[in-house]
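hey m, so remember when u said the tokens were messed up on ur end? i reran from scratch. heres the input so u can diff it against urs
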Amino acid sequence: MTLHVAFLTTPIGTLQLYSNGVALTAIDWPDQQMAQEQAVEKEDTVLRAARQQLTQYFNREREQFDIPLDAGGTEFQRAVWESLRCIPYGEQRSYADIARDIGRPKAVRAVGAANGRNPIPIIVPCHRVIGSNGALTGFAGGLALKRELLALEGAQSELWD
């Protein structure tokens, strides 16, 4: 199956959106593109929907996404990513919260690893996961970007400054 790519200019930079024509497969951060060599620059219905919904998100007009996703991953990773999708807009959860949610309370580090491998950030909101002490923790897009996304959603903490 051919992989399609489209670009979206946002307040955080230009995102690369990838689709297999049926579902969104990845979003790459600005300056961190994974250079999916097989991708053809072609906008399909999935990419049009992703562009529209992400634009609405950045304009504070959308809090949830309803785009078909195909993130791949292991069964464990998919469970973590599905749990991330249940974190409400503007709220945060800890890695331990996610581990408990998927029924693996001792798998906190594995949850962190799965969170870091999330190929569809923002739509699968890995930026909403913070440390158990409330502090910002590692993020593929960088902590400044994580802080910016959380602020966009109205979240704030004195621990993030």
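this time it looks ok to me. Strands lie at 3-10, 13-19, 24-28, 39-41, 93-94, 129-130. if urs says something different then somethings off w ur setup not the seq
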